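Give me structure tokens for this 426-residue protein.
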Amino acid sequence: MSPFTSRRDFVKAGSSLTAGTLLAAPHVARAAKNDKVIKVGLVGIGGRGSGAAAQAMGADDNVALTAIGDLFEDRIKLRSRILKARGRDKFQVTPETTFTGFDAYKKVIDSGVDVVILTSPPFFRPEHLAYAVEKGVHCFFEKPVAVDGPGVRKVIELAKKAKEKNLNFMSGFCWRHHIPKQQVFGRILDGAIGDVHAIYSTYNGGEVWKKARENGWGDLEAQARNWNAHLWLSGDSIVEQAVHCIDMMQWAMGEELPTHAEGSGGRQVYDDMDKYGNIYDHFAIAYQWENGTRGYHFSRQQNGTAGSYEVELYGEKGFCSAKNRHAIVSGDDAWRYRGKTNDMYQSEHDTLFASIRKGGEAFNDGERAAHSTMVAILGRMVAYTGQKITYDQALNSEEDLTPPHLDWDHELPTQKIPVPGVTRFV
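Here you go.
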């Protein structure tokens, strides 16, 4: 018997429950006859933040976006016009509830919101979540949950506190809310391909957006506006972007954590520190679980290269394409999902607001999201150092990526580019 059998049964039951909730949630939430307006605040009004706010306004008949916070006023002005057009009467942000600066998140949360959407760069996530939980506010927070071990450990504790307070605490691991994937991973957890022996995951694509430094920007502003290029703000691309694939690997493994990882990575095309900061442009990581299962993850951000975004599973009874074809390709239980699909981004908010309306046990996937984030950070660590590192070592790492200061007017040099064999595990 597989050592994961009992865990698999448990996770499968939870997956089925989630699928049912998702199918019902839009109808439950939008049909709710409740006079109480659910007030929503947004912290971090970038592209994902704007999308999440629009989806929140569409998730319930009686919801209003009432406060916005961001580091930069110009971004609020630009994105607010779009949100106002989409939200119409549900957009109720005023100049008095528009906040800028590093303490904007506190002002948004203190403005009287019931729910806060946290979509600032990942470095800020633990601090923002801590304040929201302290104030008793429901949270939707984008992935990843942190950029280092201390941050992940903090979010794990916050997830527990949120559960104690019965606060909804939902991460932005959106594929967990995609009906075709719920169906295919449900079958995997039910043993459709037997025990999983190997997983192949990819997140191979081109460069994501980068902003050139403008005259008048200090070091901190230049890095904050180009946050995905800087390790301390983003956690690097394997953590900020490819973590979606790593989360699906965890899903297939019934949330069992790998024992250790080895791997490599580097910079082949990111040759300009001002533009590309200090992150890598490719990773190749091998994870291993207690039962011997191996997970092979490859990701890159290189223009002109072949794209691939897939999670393939190889088991004792067959092969599965879980990300794209949603199919058990071989084996006795060959199958392909042919049912309806859904907008996973909208579905996660439908589920969140239905849970808030219903009351009772709150939705909380914080610990799961934190561990998926940590598995991605483990991959970054082994690539940076060139060493074999266990999951427990990574989780308990003392590496803290917090910069020496957050002062607009003082020099803040870009951190060094990691070099395998030279960069040490901390």
